[in-house]
Every structure is written in structure tokens, then in C-alpha cells.
């Protein structure tokens, strides 16, 4: 039997594509919507263009998914992209199953998007998402699944827009940054500012990323991967871990700019949400090897949350990046956390 024809319907500045995909008829909007809200560090409402992706089974419940500061709206593969940053966990038949839900994600805002403000906050990101939920006519989302900075934004969303949210799933993110993590990010930002002032921005951004990689990953992984001794190269001893770090720095510079990094890194350290203000059902996921978000902080968050909260501990050598690497272990956790997300498709 021949497939139904593809239908393209313009909606605002978005493109809506409907086409049969496996056993489900999935739809996708990837575009821009203008929304208004008052920024935390501003006094007047601003009109903001929010770049978003909304895809999955039509008429199904919506799940918001947000990642770390380097993640974008393309959380899963789609018609115009072969990959997504969490595609192993989000897709047709995946833990977050697009046959039974729709996924909404945005590109992070930065101060220049908000006009004359000194910084962007996790509350601003949450306000943009809440306004987008209204603009798209969603009403109430089934769950907010946030990782790292996305978890911080999820907490801000739950604290300030509880009427738009049923449940919360937080991976590697807490109600406030740990002071040691803030210290490490402060050094990274200083490196980048020094690079900008000296005309060596790309070198500085790459170096800041290299330093960041030593905080994202765990000691066990580094010990296993880079245990070999140094080799003499170009007149100096070169250690195995250096090739890995330099590659990570180069890749980051290719897809990120310094001003965006400075803004979002600072936004992490400005984050501060009162757990007592959150009453929705919450699932927390932590990793013992995560040095940026220690399990002790998640235990404190669990104790202080105003609603029912469970803490899932996932063993991993990958540190903070375990939310990206441990897809097999995380799949059942996510399925259980949003197991009643079912829609007509």
C-alpha cells in the first residue's frame, strides 16, 4: 500500500512536516516563535525569538528535554538531521518514545537575546519555555527532563510555572552550583576573557574547554584511558591525555563562540532555586563519579523538595558526562519516570 503524501503546513516561522515513520505518524516543528517575559535581571518585559523543536506523535503529551550549556534544540534525529545529542534515548521506540509523546526543546538564550541585561538566568530560560508552551497551545507538559544546566532550568520551571508541569526528571543538576564547581568555571571564564583582551580568543576558548573536560569526566575513566607514559615529541615530553584535551578544545571552538560560553557558564553559577517551592513529583538521577554535582547535593535537594522525590544512583566512570554516556543504564530510569506518557498516534 502506498504511503500517504507528505504534508507541509507553514505555522508562524516554523515548518510542520507530517509523514509516516515506522508505526507512528510523527510530526515535527522546527522554527522560531516570539514570546514575552520579564528577565530576572531586567525591569521590563522583552520580546524574545525562541528557536525550538517540537516533534513526535500528534496529539500526544509533550515532554520538555533540555541538556547542558553546549546542547541545542536538536535532541533527536529528524527529517533534516541524522543525529541528535540524546538520540539513543529519544526517538521512535526509545526510552522517551516519540510514538507516544512529543518532545519540546529550545536553543539556550543569551543576554543579547534579552536586550539590555547583564546576564541570563535559569529562570529566564524557564520563562521562555513556559511562554512557548502557551504559544504552542500545549497547556501543561507531561514532564520536564533536564540534564546539567537543563536540570537547573527544570527546577526553575517547576518553581515558577508549576501549573504547566506534571512531573520533573533531573539528571546531574541541583538547586544551586557547588562552590568548587563555581571556582573551576570562574577560572575557565577568566581564561576566555584574557584571550579576548589579547586577541587570542580561539586559543583561550579551547584551553577553557580543555580545563572543563577535566571536570566533566571521572578519575576512573582518565586512569584507564591515559595510563601510558609520555613520549618525546617536538622537543618536549607529550602526555597521552594531551591529544584528547586538544582535540576536545578544537571541536568546541568550531561550534561555540566565546561570548555564548561566558554567558551560559555564568548563568550556571547564578542559579539558585528554593527546593521547598517545588511540589511536583520529581525523579533525581546522580552519579557517584560526578565531581561537578556531588551526590550530597542531590541528597540535600531530595530532602528539601516540597513534593515526592526519589533519587536514582547510577554507577559510571564518566563523571558528569554520564548523562550522555550511560544510555543503557538511563533508559529504564527514564521509562519508569515517564511511564504513563501515552497518547493517540
TrEMBL record:
User: What EC numbers are recorded for this enzyme?
Assistant: 2.3.1.46
Pfam families, from UniProt? Abhydrolase_1
Which GO molecular-function terms appear in the entry? Answer: homoserine O-acetyltransferase activity; homoserine O-succinyltransferase activity
Kindly identify the residues recorded as the active site: 148, 290, 320
Keywords tagged on the record = Acyltransferase, Transferase
Q: Which Gene3D superfamilies does the entry mention?
A: alpha/beta hydrolase (3.40.50.1820)
Which superkingdom? Bacteria
Alphabetically, which GO biological process terms does the record hold?
homoserine metabolic process; methionine biosynthetic process
UniProt KW Transferase keyword: yes
Q: Does the keyword Acyltransferase apply?
A: yes
Which residue range or ranges hold the AB hydrolase-1 domain? 100-326
Q: What NCBIfam families would the database entry show?
A: PRK08775.1
Q: What is this protein called?
A: Homoserine O-succinyltransferase
Amino acid at each position: 500500500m502506498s504511503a500517504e503524501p507528505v504534508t507541509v503546513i507553514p505555522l508562524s516561522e516554523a515548518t510542520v512536516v507530517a509523514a509516516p515513520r515506522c508505526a507512528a505518524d510523527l510530526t515535527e516543528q522546527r522554527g522560531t516563535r516570539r514570546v514575552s517575559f520579564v528577565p530576572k535581571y531586567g525591569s521590563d518585559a522583552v520580546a524574545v525569538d525562541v528557536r525550538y523543536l517540537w516533534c513526535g506523535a500528534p496529539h500526544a503529551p509533550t515532554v520538555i528535554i533540555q541538556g547542558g550549556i553546549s546542547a541545542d534544540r536538536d535532541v533527536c534525529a529528524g527529517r533534516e538531521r541524522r543525529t541528535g545529542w540524546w538520540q539513543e534515548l529519544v526517538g521512535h521506540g526509545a526510552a522517551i518514545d516519540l510514538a507516544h509523546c512529543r518532545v519540546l526543546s529550545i536553543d539556550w538564550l543569551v543576554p543579547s537575546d534579552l536586550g539590555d541585561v547583564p546576564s541570563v538566568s535559569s529562570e529566564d530560560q524557564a520563562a521562555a519555555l513556559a511562554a512557548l508552551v502557551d504559544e504552542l497551545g500545549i497547556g501543561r507538559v507531561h514532564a520536564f527532563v533536564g540534564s546539567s544546566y537543563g536540570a537547573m532550568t527544570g527546577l526553575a520551571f517547576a518553581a515558577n510555572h508549576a501549573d504547566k508541569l506534571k512531573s520533573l526528571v533531573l539528571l546531574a543538576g541541583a538547586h544551586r552550583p557547588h562552590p568548587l564547581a563555581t571556582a573551576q568555571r570562574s577560572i575557565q571564564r577568566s581564561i576566555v576573557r584574557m584571550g579576548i583582551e589579547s586577541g587570542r580568543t580561539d586559543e583561550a576558548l579551547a584551553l577553557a574547554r580543555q580545563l572543563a573536560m577535566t571536570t566533566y569526566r571521572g578519575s576512573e575513566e582518565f586512569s584507564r584511558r591515559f595510563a601510558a607514559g609520555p613520549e618525546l615529541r617536538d622537543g618536549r615530553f607529550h602526555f597521552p591525555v594531551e591529544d584528547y584535551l586538544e582535540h576536545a578544545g578544537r571541536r568546541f571552538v568550531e561550534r561555540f563562540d566565546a561570548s555564548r560560553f561566558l554567558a551560559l557558564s555564568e548563568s550556571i553559577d547564578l542559579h539558585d532555586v528554593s527546593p521547598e517551592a517545588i511540589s511536583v513529583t520529581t525523579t533525581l538521577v546522580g552519579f557517584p563519579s560526578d565531581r561537578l554535582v556531588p551526590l550530597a547535593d542531590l541528597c540535600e535537594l531530595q530532602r528539601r523538595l516540597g513534593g515526592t522525590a526519589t533519587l536514582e544512583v547510577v554507577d559510571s566512570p564518566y563523571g558528569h558526562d554520564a548523562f550522555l554516556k550511560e544510555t543503557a543504564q538511563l533508559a529504564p530510569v527514564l521509562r519508569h519516570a515517564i511511564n504513563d506518557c501515552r497518547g493517540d498516534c
